[in-house]
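Researcher: Sequence recovery benchmark, item below. Answer with residues only.
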């Protein structure tokens, strides 16, 4: 399932088409949202703490840090009540991006 709006970001996976027959397996859609800290263009140490606000009805969060070449250097899933995570790897000097996605929707 591919969305064309930010609310349905899907960064990887296999596209599929829903047909007229019922789909009986549970699956979750990831939602992107605004981040807390570090802020855009902020300088941080080699193991920053990533913080974000809670998202309504979140089941879990996944935090990623990646290089400008889109190589993921940190990937962590948290429970819905955890809205921050500290990197457990040292980042060499450079520019990085980060994102958080949350699983919320249960489609049946």
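Model:
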């Amino acid at each position: 399932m591919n969305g064309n709006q930010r609310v349905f970001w899907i960064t990887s996976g296999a596209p599929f088409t829903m047909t007229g027959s019922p789909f009986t397996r549970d699956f979750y859609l990831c939602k992107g949202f605004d981040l807390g800290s570090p802020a855009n263009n902020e300088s941080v140490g080699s193991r920053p703490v990533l913080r974000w606000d809670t998202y309504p009805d979140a089941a879990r969060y996944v935090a990623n840090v990646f290089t400008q070449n889109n190589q993921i250097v940190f990937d962590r899933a948290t429970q819905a009540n955890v809205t921050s995570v500290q990197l457990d790897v040292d980042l060499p000097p450079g520019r990085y991006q980060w994102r958080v996605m949350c699983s919320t929707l249960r489609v049946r």
